[in-house]
Amino acid sequence: MDDSDEPPVILDEEQPPAGATADGPRAETPVDAFVSGAAYAALALLALVVAVLGAFAQDWTLGSVPVAAIGLVAANFVFVRLAGWAMGARLGAVIPAVVWSLVVFLLSVQRPEGDLVIPGTTPGYVFIVGGMVAAVIAAGTTPTRRPAGDWLTRGIGPTRG
Fold this sequence. Notes:
The chain is mainly alpha-helical. The protein has a domain at about 40-145. About 55% of the residues lie in helices and about 0% in strands. It has five helices and two strands. It has helices at about 30-55, 65-85, 90-105, 120-140, 150-155; strands spanning about 20, 25. Helix 1 runs parallel beside helix 3, helix 2 (about 65-85) runs antiparallel to helix 3 (about 90-105) and helix 3 packs antiparallel against helix 4 (about 120-140).
């Protein structure tokens, strides 16, 4: 076998990183889009479960201190922040925050029969308002892997680095 049949080995510092082309990062394939969508759907489903379980547990108190509601607010902050970190984008934090807020809002609305899950008590208000504030703070402070504004300027030109 002749050595000239093999492609030359290029040892260049300017080679693109693995998974990227010379023009930039590799394009997203349909499989990548499906996996990302499934991950966001899983986060939304998990946020629904967290909201429902929290709605039924928020009324536990220690004397007059709503310890369960306070703990659930902290857990909501951690959940939203971890979701954003795991997805590497602020959207990963926003989706569970929005789903959690919608579910909690629906469970706090009184039905025509007079039933509701989250009553207008101190633990209920701490859970609703505190959880929403915690979710907004967690989503707003979630770092992203891409530079700010990359979604708007993607493909226009080189970025500062």
